[in-house]
Amino acid sequence: MSKGAIHPQLTRYQHWRHLWELKVQVLAPSRSRSSTMGNEDYFNWRENMERCQRESKRQVQALLYQTRRLKEENKVLRIQVSSSAPPRSPQPRSQRVNSRKNEEATYPRNVDFLHAE
């Protein structure tokens, strides 16, 4: 059995961590370059990193807010549908389907009409 099948959450976490590390590697200067980088370059790099982090946090907060709002909206819609839904037929679904087939057998000229629905 694969590791992903045993721990799908762990695998997802590792995937996102790997993507984050790749992004940091692209944005971060290499060690050899950082030693030759001046203070102004380092300050600009750090400022850029902090700006990216703030932007990421804002995006996460917006997504969390939207998720909460959609969950609440979904809950309200489920309540509306359940309270306005017509009462269920006492017959099980299989019997309703069978009764339609019996109607087709009894009234063969209605077959085209029933299938056109």
Automatic annotation (TrEMBL):
Low complexity composition bias: residue spans: 80-97
Q: Where is the composition biased (Basic and acidic residues)?
A: 100-117
* Residues covered by region (Disordered): 76-117
**Annotated protein name in UniProt:** Uncharacterized protein
- Which species does the entry assign this protein to? Vitis vinifera (Grape)
